[in-house]
Amino acid sequence: FTRRLGQSIAYGNFNDDDYDDVAVSAPFKTVGVNDVAGEVYIYFGSPTGIGANPDVTISGLAGFAGFGFDMAKINWSTGPEDGLAISAPYGNTVYIFHGTTLSSAATLDTTNANIVIKPDTNANWFTDGLIGWSLAVGQLHAGSEDLIMGVPSGGGVGGAVILHGGTPVAGNYTVNLSESADSMMMAGLEGQVFEN
After folding, report:
1. For residue 58, what pLDDT is reported?
2. What's the rounded Cα separation, in Å, for the pair 50 and 20?
3. What is d(CA 152, CA 135) in angstroms, rounded to the nearest whole number?
């Protein structure tokens, strides 16, 4: 498999200094023995620009998940630094890393994610939906930024899901998506599903 380096690119100030940083994904990269597990490389900006080698490498751990298929800058933490939403749509999961996590070590993996977004264990609209095929972040209401996720196979017809950012919560947690928007109201988040 080709790595598909450059499949997605995102920028932000992930380490809260005076310079922007860039994240570049390779979602089809083999990690260990896992084909198409994916990796994301973060290059920190500096007075002389970015270096030839990444400052942080984040590895996907699941084979054929496509970690890094899409990415978007987002801040769902209490700190000033930007975080990063990273999708693994073939694994039906989106991972969010806070900036403090991104700047804490040179090597990270999906177990270091601060927030994990995936379908509920009971079969529902999101099961096999390819969550995070596309990602966007916007300010669609008062409060924290909102995460918009493409789910092209959701319910067999596809759609988009908006998770409205709530009050940032300390610690790591998982958001289990189900067909009821009310069930997405975890850790201050509430959601909407749009399908045609």
Report:
1. 98
2. 10
3. 12
What is the maximum span of the chain, computed from C-alpha positions, in angstroms? Answer: 51
Q: From CA 58, how far away is CA 42, in angstroms rounded?
A: 8
- Please state the pTM of the whole predicted model: 0.91
Residue type, 161: V
Instruction: Name residue, tokens 């979602």.
Output: 27
Going by C-alpha positions, the residue among 29, 25, 31 that lies closest to residue 8 is 25
Q: pLDDT of 53-79, one tens digit each?
A: 999 999 999 999 999 999 999 998 888
Instruction: Report the chain's C-alpha Rg in angstroms.
Output: 16
DSSP state letter for 81: S
Quote the Cα angle for 23-127-87, to 5°.
Answer: 0
- Distance (Å, whole) CA 19 – CA 47: 8
Where is 41: in which H helix or E strand?
A: strand 39-43
In angstroms, rounded to a whole number, what is the distance separating the alpha carbons of residues 117 and 52?
A: 32
Cα torsion angle, 122, 125, 128, 132, sign: negative
In the numeric block, which tokens belong to residue 179? 């067909």
Any idea what DSSP says for residue 27? T
Residue ranges of the chain with per-residue pLDDT less than 70: 1, 167-170, 179-196
Q: Which of 65, 93, 83 is nearest to 23 (CA)?
A: 83
H or E stretch at 102: helix 99-102
